[in-house]
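pls design
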């Protein structure tokens, strides 16, 4: 590890959404392990979710701290305490959350000016565009963290910066995405859903995010070079800046507690869950989890359950949203499948489950973290995207990595149409299939899992990228300091 200036201090601004906070907390600990001092700026409720993990890191002598800002929710008409996107009752309220987040600029600048040692660099979620102005005022570099991998990031860049969506007439017709080396077919609804700017406020917000990204000194991506080598380069070319792939960041967690307690308190006893898995044959279980934000209708949930029941495959199924109707249905269902099915209500210790040897497949909503966690565990996946970039991640899993099967096996199973139990069963069976095609998929998935682990080990591509990213920060700081001395002279 190259030596660092003693007082290198990196400040992180994670978006208050599990899919963004969880990897940023991992990034914080990775940077601290590389001897940087790290401050994570967030709000009380979000800090509470990670306090135990940060306390463990401090105990392990990492120089890391949480700083809390007050989020003025009542000023924008949101209930006090509703500080994470997963607490908002509807997607329509996102815009109010963005307004409240925008009001954090001045308090954040004050906090940063008081930090000792003074901040050397900001790594900010791209949904805090104002951190760009704060960095400029402090004369320090700012790197942007977006969330998805390079392939998806590039696809989104193409969608946002070409006329392609205007050239496609119907929302449901498939078109081939231009400027991508793999043949990727998407519908307009799938490609454009991510950047829904149906209000003036959201349109302005996208303009601000784009400008702040263009001004950034580099892009931090939770991916690894070997997973998507062409796309790392193509993304860097498209954005005209350095792209630092430093993941899969979840793999840096080594202790039981760090792996088991990611993001939230689990709705199941982690040890009991492992004991349940210990009783199952190697690679025989499928894990089903649709992420921290998406919710499916009860009708679809029941159909999913029935598909699992028909398949006869052992499973762990994480169900996030419960209603009285769900519970009523589940009581009979759980009894019927009790010999081979475990239902987790609320939050699952996902990475712990995925890394158990009894797990042989993952039915995922294709959030980027889940995608990468599935890859890291060397698992083939059944893809069930719901919204935003998840449809593009699905294409990555199926068309680029070739380790997945879509749950929407029929053309008629378009998004928004109920996926029937028979189709669900076929997708599940196909992923666990012992025949040639399934075997090949599993082999590819295993190889990717090995590559992911190597990338994070000392000397691996992501490990080396972290070191050179830190050196790049040091270099940029020195340039900024020289410039400001020249300005004074
Ligand atoms: N996660 C988890 N348990 C759950 C649901 C989600 O540990 O029950 C974690 C998952 O491991 C991943 C993150 O939450 O790290 C979800 O991020 P992702 O990008 O996959 O999807 P999102 O929730 O943002 O849609």
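designed seq:
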């Amino acid at each position: 590890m190259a030596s660092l200036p003693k007082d290198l201090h990196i400040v992180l601004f994670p978006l208050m959404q599990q899919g963004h906070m969880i990897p940023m907390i991992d990034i914080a600990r990775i940077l601290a392990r590389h001897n940087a001092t790290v401050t994570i700026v967030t709000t009380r409720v979000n800090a509470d979710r990670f306090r135990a993990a940060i306390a463990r890191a401090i105990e392990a002598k990492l120089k890391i701290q949480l700083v809390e800002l007050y989020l003025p929710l009542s000023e924008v008409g949101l209930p006090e305490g509703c500080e994470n996107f997963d607490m908002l009752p509807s997607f329509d309220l996102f815009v109010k959350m963005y307004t409240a987040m925008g009001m954090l600029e001045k308090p954040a600048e004050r906090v940063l000016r008081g930090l000792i040692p003074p901040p050397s660099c900001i790594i900010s979620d791209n949904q805090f565009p104002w951190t760009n102005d704060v960095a400029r005022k402090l004369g320090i570099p700012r790197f942007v963290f977006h969330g998805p991998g390079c392939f998806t990031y590039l696809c989104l860049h193409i969608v946002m910066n070409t006329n392609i969506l205007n050239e496609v007439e119907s929302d449901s017709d498939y078109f081939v995405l231009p400027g991508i080396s793999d043949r990727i077919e998407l519908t307009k609804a799938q490609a454009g859903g991510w950047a829904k700017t149906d209000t003036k406020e959201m349109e302005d917000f996208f303009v601000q995010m784009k400008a702040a990204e263009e001004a950034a000194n580099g892009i931090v991506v939770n991916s690894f070079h070997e997973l998507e080598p062409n796309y790392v380069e193509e993304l860097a070319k498209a954005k005209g800046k350095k792209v630092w792939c430093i993941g899969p960041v979840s793999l840096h967690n080594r202790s039981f507690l760090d792996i088991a307690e990611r993001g939230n308190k689990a709705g199941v006893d982690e040890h009991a869950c492992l004991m349940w898995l210990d009783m199952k044959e190697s690679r025989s279980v499928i894990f089903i989890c649709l992420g921290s934000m998406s919710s499916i209708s009860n009708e679809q949930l029941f159909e999913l359950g029935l598909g699992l029941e028909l398949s006869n495959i052992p499973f762990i199924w994480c169900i996030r949203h419960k209603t009285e109707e769900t519970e009523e249905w589940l009581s009979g269902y759980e009894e019927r499948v009790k010999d081979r099915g475990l239902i987790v209500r609320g939050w699952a210790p996902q990475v712990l489950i995925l890394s158990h040897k009894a797990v042989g497949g993952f039915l995922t909503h294709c959030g980027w973290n889940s995608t990468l966690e599935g890859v890291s565990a060397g698992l083939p996946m059944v893809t069930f995207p719901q919204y935003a970039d998840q449809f593009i991640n699905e294409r990555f899993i199926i068309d680029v990595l070739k380790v997945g099967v879509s749950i929407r096996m029929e053309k008629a199973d378009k998004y928004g149409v109920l996926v029937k139990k028979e189709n669900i069963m076929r997708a599940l069976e196909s992923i666990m299939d012992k025949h040639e095609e399934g075997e090949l998929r599993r082999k590819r998935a295993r190889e990717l899992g090995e590559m992911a682990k190597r990338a994070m080990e000392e000397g691996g591509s992501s490990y080396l990228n972290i070191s050179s990213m830190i050196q790049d920060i040091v270099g940029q700081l020195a340039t900024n300091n020289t410039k400001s001395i020249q300005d004074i002279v």
